Amino acid sequence: MRAVDLIRKKRDAGEHSREEINFLVSGFTRGEIPDYQMSAWLMATWIRGLSRAEIAALTEAMLHSGEMVSFPELPGKKVDKHSTGGVGDKTSLILAPIVAAGGLNVPMISGRGLGHTGGTLDKLESIPGFNTVLSLTDFRLVLRECGMALIGQTAEIAPADKKIYALRDVTSTVENVGLICASIMSKKLAEGIDALVLDVKTGSGAFMQREEDSVLLAELMVETGQLMGKKTVALITDMDQPLGRFAGHSHEVIESLEVLKSRGAADLRELSIELSAWMFYLGERTKSLDEGRLLAQKLLASGEALKKFRQGVSLQGGDARVVDDYAILPQAENRTEVKSTARGFLAATNCMEFGVALAMLGGGREQKEDKIDPGVGLEFHKRIGDCVAVGDTLVTIHYNADSKLAEAKQLIAESFRIADQQPPAKKLIRRLVGT
Ligand code: URA
């Protein structure tokens, strides 16, 4: 078998056999298939798509590229959540400590920034010293000690996703249901969890912008999880505007801490509580979702979740003083504002472009080796439905280098649609799949 023939096959809309997919995944993971051939195959796949059988084969091949861990030594259920990604989506930093404080185990394998979206690992790494590259032994130790551990894919766990994910990020091959399903489920099924809650984003800042595509992706992932014997549900949630008020690594850590301190943005708090409630319920910690919601609220109000965050940060080598002193986080040196030139109501945003603008300022990668600038960020001052006057600040940009500032500023300004009529309110949680 040769990679070049498989690229041609997919380019010409052929369907791969299980053996062909195994050949590509194992060859690429071992370094025998180079980046340029895998990139070509990913692009052909992005354009031509994958059949259900190919998606199942790809998920399995990526899952078996590494170990499937289990934690028989841990009392209590193991649960996790994964989001398909969006702008300002930082719920992992909030719900992992809530759920761990509630007595469940959260062995979370996350990703870095992908496309226009930010990644949990990059956000955590803005905390000085925080180590997201733990060995399997240390992952177990941290998990046993505090009930949560947040790491990336490793050479041991989901190594195929580690390499393919990094390549998709910089080759514009992210937004494909088959590739997303295989990427997410190969990581999550390797974690040794009992239950999984999926947050599938929909709207202008999501990879799947149309709700029907988000539902299809959710169904694929839920079916994959359930077939593997894991309790799995998906929430289809709004990404027509950023989640919370901030996007950018340090800013998102601060905003998460604000929610853990029972302050912060209402939408971010609501979604974090809802996802935590589902984790409690599927993990059999509570008998109902309502009980799960109450427990999450109680753990926030009592400071238990914040305490858990502090413990988790310090066990992973991070400077836990960050909880009380945000100045420890990298900050951008300069600020500028994007102001409205129209009056009316904020009717819609082209939310993906906020992520693209943030990446231009250094908050994302253009090439695999690029370093993130954690201090850059965007602060959003208006929500959809808000009244806007001429001269109102829409976004404050926190930046360091100004080489692409003008371009980023223009992109942001063009991403707001102001209209005369107030748009109808949209629900944050649109639908459930798998219940
Ligand atoms: N999150 C992932 O882990 N993988 C994807 O492909 C998209 C979102």
Textual characterization of the structure:
The chain has helices at residues 3-11, 18-29, 35-48, 52-63, 91-101, 120-124, 136-146, 159-169, 177-189, 211-227, 249-260, 266-282, 289-301, 304-315, 351-363, 405-413, and strands at residues 79-83, 106-110, 148-152, 195-202, 231-238, 246-247, 334-339, 344-349, 377-380, 387-388, 393-399, 416-419, 429-433. Helix 1 (3-11) packs parallel to helix 3 (35-48). It is an alpha/beta fold. It is globular, with a radius of gyration of 21 Å. The relative contact order is 0.14. The structure holds uracil (URA).
Span between termini: 42 Å
Low confidence ranges: none
What class, by secondary structure content?
alpha/beta
Multimeric state: single chain
Helix content: 40-55%
How many beta-strand segments?
A: 13
Strand content: 15-25%
Short description:
About 45% of the residues lie in helices and about 15% in strands. By secondary structure, it is an alpha/beta fold.
List keywords for this structure.
about 425 residues; alpha/beta; four-stranded mixed beta sheet; four-stranded antiparallel beta sheet; 16 helices; about 45% helix; globular; binds uracil
Write the layout of secondary structure elements.
Layout: H1 3-11, H2 18-29, H3 35-48, H4 52-63, E1 79-83, H5 91-101, E2 106-110, H6 120-124, H7 136-146, E3 148-152, H8 159-169, H9 177-189, E4 195-202, H10 211-227, E5 231-238, E6 246-247, H11 249-260, H12 266-282, H13 289-301, H14 304-315, E7 334-339, E8 344-349, H15 351-363, E9 377-380, E10 387-388, E11 393-399, H16 405-413, E12 416-419, E13 429-433
Parallel strand pairs: 1-4, 2-3, 4-5
Antiparallel strand pairs: 5-13, 6-9, 7-11, 8-10, 8-12, 9-11
Bound molecules: uracil.
The site of uracil (URA) has 9 residues, from helix 9.
